[in-house]
Amino acid sequence: MQLFACGVNHHTAPVSIRERVAFPPDILPKALADVTGERRLAREAAILSTCNRTEIYVNTQEPANVADWLASFHGLPAREVKPYLYLLPQEQAANHAFRVASGLDSMVLGETQILGQMKQAAAKAHAAGTLGLLLNKLFQRTFAVAKEVRTATEIGANTVSMSAAAVSLAERIFPSISEQAVLFIGAGEMIELVATHFAARKPKRIMVVNRTVERARDLANKFGGEAAALTNLPELLADFDILVTSTASPLPIVGLGMVERAVKIRKHRPMFMVDLAVPRDIESEVGELDDVFLYTVDDLGEVVRQGHDSRTSAVTQAEAIIHARVHEFMHWMDSRKTVPVIRSLRDHGERLRRHELEKAHRALARGDDPRQVLEALSRGLINKLLHDPSHTLNQAGDAEREELARLVSRLYNLHND
User: What are the pLDDT digits (tens) for 224-243?
Assistant: First the structure.
């Protein structure tokens, strides 16, 4: 078994790269089938794709091929992706997975959302049939480590979430959120989190637009807001001062022309926009407009890093826990190397057992004394089991015999003087 983690994240790649290698939920099954299918690039695979990272965890002998596949699957030249790519083998891969799930590798130190996203990645791989013994063990250990870190340390204390950061930035543009109208595009978990923070500031108007109006209405009702279909966005945009978007759309939803028209209608009153989607929902050129303040997930980084210093000791404790658990996981991986030998040894013993048992059955059928049959059975089985190691010891050279004798004593727990 060879464990590798391959991918890009907010440390290694800007959002302009991350969005090009992201895996929307609807193509994940196809991607998992492709990487483990006829081409046999990997025996097992799981894909974690969020706004901050795209990572592939694999059991493979050819990790470089998986890295090339990541680019080719998205129709990109490998040279455009490789400068941002990390490829982590074995122990490093396990350490990385444990750190990610524990919130140590997140833009928001100690955030909890990533753990749920990793669980979803494992569940989708399981449903696709690409989660085998190694990756199943990795993810189960990962979830256990994350729980231990969050229970034993204060890693989540004073965390400034992406949602809170969005509100904080908006308050730098507008004196009071209570005087602004807020529009949310999308109806997923991230939008609900952001809406919760904005709703706490009691804006004068809240609206949720989504491709499925029913989902938009369900979310809007939680905050006393309105709902509309995404197709109405061009007509609605000018009515709102704040826009937050997070969808799974592979292409931008909010274009430059749409925003230019809205700004003109608003008579150049400022608009604050937060694009939490990867790939991005808002065309990057929108940020160049004079009256628009556009922020992406990367732009929120400075805000969410506030309070990190107060958690330095928690990070140290968390790293110590992770180091110990990585050592345990690698010990488990190493122990799996002996499985074929143990299986062969058991098969060998089973063949000998069946042979002696058949002899005993024949003896009993002839009417032999059962006590003598059992005696012969046990003696014959012991002799056959010990024949090969005894013969090997007797035939070994002097130097080899001493080492073999030591190993036999250890294997059979012998205590020789």
Answer: 999 999 999 999 999 999 99
Contact in structure between 216 and 246 (CB atoms under 8 Å)? no
CB atoms within 10 A of CB 223: 19
CATH superfamily of 162-304: NAD(P)-binding Rossmann-like Domain (3.40.50.720)
What is the number of helices (H) and of strands (E) in the chain?
17, 10
Q: Which of 6, 22, 51, 321 is catalytic?
A: 51
What are the structural domain ranges in the chain? 3-158+309-336, 162-304, 345-411
Beta-carbon neighbour count of residue 111 at 10 Å? 18
CATH number of 3-158+309-336: 3.30.460.30
- Residue 279, preceding peptide bond in cis (omega within 30° of 0): yes
- The closest of 41, 120, 117 to 73, measured between CA atoms, is 41
Q: Is 6 a catalytic residue?
A: no
Question: Distance (Å, rounded) from C-alpha 343 to C-alpha 133?
Answer: 16
pTM higher than 0.70 for the full model?
yes
352: its two tokens:
């000998």
